[in-house]
Design goal:
Number of helices: 1
Helix content: under 10%
Order of helices and strands: EEEEEHEE
Mean pLDDT: 86
Distance between the termini: 9 Å
Radius of gyration: 13 Å
Number of domains: 1
Structural class: mainly beta
Strand content: 35-45%
Length: about 90
C-alpha cells in the first residue's frame, strides 16, 4: 500500500493527471482510494489510463450530468490524499 498527497499545478492536462504505478514503486494498481480536494473537487483514479481526474459540481445536471471534468480552471491550490494498493 502506498499513500501520497498529490498537489496539482496550474496546467491541468486534458483527460487527467498521470500517476503511474512505477512512480509509486508498484508494478500495478489493484485499488485506489481517493478523496475530495482541498477546495471541493471530486478526484477519481482511472486504472485503465493511470490518471487522476478532477470533477466539479455542475449547476445544470439535466444537461450534462451532476459532475463535469475540470477543463480550464487553475488547480494549483488543489491537493488530494491518494491511497493505492497493488503489487
Amino acid at each position: 500500500m502506498k499513500q501520497v498527497v498529490d498537489t496539482f499545478d496550474a496546467t491541468y492536462p486534458a483527460g487527467g493527471e498521470s500517476v503511474l504505478p512505477s512512480q509509486l514503486g508498484l508494478r500495478g494498481i489493484d485499488y485506489a482510494s481517493i478523496g475530495i480536494t482541498t477546495n471541493g473537487y471530486v478526484a477519481q483514479y482511472l486504472t485503465a489510463t493511470s490518471k487522476v481526474k478532477l470533477w466539479e459540481g455542475d449547476y445544470d445536471p439535466a444537461a450534462v450530468g451532476p459532475l463535469t471534468q475540470n477543463a480550464t480552471a487553475d488547480v494549483s491550490a488543489e491537493s488530494v490524499r491518494l491511497k493505492f494498493e497493488g503489487n
